[in-house]
Specification:
about 140 residues, alpha+beta, Aminopeptidase, 7-stranded mixed beta sheet, 5 helices, 7 strands, about 35% helix
C-alpha cells in the first residue's frame, strides 16, 4: 500500500475520486448521499486543494484503490475515506487513516452514520474515540 498526497489538480485523480464517491455503496454510507455532477465535482476539487485541505490517494501496485480526505474546518480536520469494494476488509483504510492522522499537533474529527459498522471499526482501530451521538451520526475525535 502506498499513500500519495495530492498537491495539485490532477484530472486522473479527480476523475477517480468522483467515480468512487458516486458509487452506490459509498453514497449509502456518506453523510451526503446525493449523486454528484461532474461539473460540481470539478469546481469542488479545485477549491478543496486551494485551501488547507489534504487528500491522500491509497494505491496498491500503482493502482488507485481509495482516498482519505482531510478538510480543515475551524480547529479540526474532518476526515472521510472511501475504498473500492474489491479492496474492502484488507486493512487499507485502517492503515491509511492511522498514518494520515498520526500528527498529534492536529485535531481530527470523523462523522460516521450509526449503521456504518465498517467505518466505525476503521475509526476505532485508528485510535479515534467516540464522543457523542446526534440523531443517527456518531462523532469520533482524535
Amino acid at each position: 500500500m502506498k499513500l500519495i498526497r495530492v498537491k495539485f489538480n490532477d484530472i486522473k485523480i479527480s476523475k477517480f475520486i468522483f467515480t468512487l464517491r458516486n458509487k452506490n455503496y459509498v453514497r449509502k454510507n456518506s453523510i451526503n448521499t446525493k449523486k454528484l455532477k461532474i461539473s460540481e465535482h470539478k469546481k469542488w476539487f479545485e477549491n478543496f486543494l486551494k485551501k488547507k485541505n489534504i487528500i491522500y490517494i491509497i494505491s496498491k501496485k500503482k493502482i488507485m484503490i481509495g482516498y482519505i480526505r482531510l478538510e480543515k474546518i475551524k480547529n479540526f480536520f474532518y476526515v472521510s475515506w472511501a475504498i473500492l469494494k474489491k479492496y474492502h476488509n484488507m486493512g487499507f483504510a485502517k492503515k491509511g487513516l492511522g498514518f494520515v492522522t498520526k500528527t498529534k499537533t492536529r485535531k481530527y474529527k470523523a462523522l460516521i452514520k450509526k449503521n456504518n459498522l465498517t467505518s466505525i471499526h476503521i475509526a476505532e482501530k485508528a485510535n479515534f474515540k467516540r464522543k457523542y451521538v446526534k440523531e443517527n451520526i456518531l462523532y469520533y475525535f482524535k
